[in-house]
Amino acid sequence: MYSETTRTIRVTVKPFYLEDQSSPAENHYVWAYHVKIENTGGEKVQLRTRHWRITDALGRVQEVRGPGVVGEQPVLEPGESFEYTSGTPLPTPSGIMVGTYQMEGAAGEMFDVRIPAFSLDSPHQPVRLN
After folding, report:
1. Which long-range contacts does 13-18 make (Cβ < 8 Å, 24+ apart)?
2. Interval 65-77: pLDDT, tens
3. Cα–Cα dist 79/124, whole Å
4. Contact 57/125 with Cβ under 8 angstroms?
5. Which of 33, 72, 74, 77 has a 20 to 30 A CA-CA distance from 51?
6. Pairing of strands 29-39, 45-56
7. Single pTM value for the model
């Protein structure tokens, strides 16, 4: 698992490879990732937007931006959390994801919360010894 805290918002991500949805012979590899967003502070916040940078093993970058997550813009009261699962395909057997959520505080101020960088590894990735 990967975890990072910005201000009082903790984001934890657990990626997992989906063998049954992947086709290595066709250069199609699929991962799911489970995200938990926790409000450990004393102020209500709302998730407004997301921004992902997805980099495959050849260094190609795809950026994804949009409102909310999985069609929602959850409001987190102090002590509350929100969890969801999503996924991404890649044309290579490994990659990395990193991003930010834009949150809105109780007073209307906007701030970015870091999503920790996490690796997407499949059993089809060649092992390199250094």
Report:
1. 13/115, 13/116, 13/118, 15/97, 15/118, 15/119, 15/120, 17/120, 17/121, 17/122, 17/123, 18/87
2. 999 999 999 999 9
3. 40
4. yes
5. 77
6. unpaired
7. 0.92
